[in-house]
Write a structure and sequence with these properties.
Layout: H1 2-24, E1 39-46, E2 54-61, E3 66-73, E4 79-88, E5 92-97, E6 100-109, E7 114-118, E8 124-130
Antiparallel strand pairs: 1-2, 1-8, 2-3, 3-4, 4-5, 5-6, 6-7, 7-8
Amino acid sequence: MKKVFFTILSLFILSCSSDDDNNNNDNSSEPTVNSDLVGTWVGSGTDDDDPLIITLQTIVFNQDGTGSVTDAIVLTGESNVSELTWYSNATTIFGTLEGQLDEIGYVLSEQNQQLDLTFPEGDVGIYVRLE
């Protein structure tokens, strides 16, 4: 009887430790991306000092957590492209642009065709998905 009890106890311990191993291998601690954000988004804005300076901003979010931000000034034709790394949760995009990590609030609407971003300084940008 002791052998049967010991065998059952051993199996129970092994099965519990097996579950712990699976939990430790779970990738839940790795950054994730909201796949609804993946794609190309475009928005526009004006310069606070000169409202005639209009900038088109294109943001590309790739599934692998990379991307880019392109700012193009309409009047001058000047543009600047910056590489982006990012991950997200349900309400925040954590993006690193030019070595600076920012937390940007977001809301998707219009069947995931409109992206409202709230930047750290409080500015809000409205972007539409390019297909």
